[in-house]
Write a structure and sequence with these properties.
alpha+beta
Length: 82
Amino acid sequence: MEKHTYSPKGVCSTLIEYELDDEKKIHNLKFTGGCNGNLKAIGRLLEGQDAKQAADILRGNQCGFKGTSCADQLSKALDEVL
């Protein structure tokens, strides 16, 4: 498994950590900071899911008037690796 980290911009979380297996499935997704319960739920929902599909679903999701969200930042993190 490949470990990855990403420093999100414009959101409350300060770090996104995750692993991708050989089939590009997401594992052990963790956010530092942000809305703890919601971000833990995203990690649980995406465990074992295809990274490209997840990025496509999350891309463009906004939090208030920020123009981005932790989920959108995760899509950017995944896009960068894929």
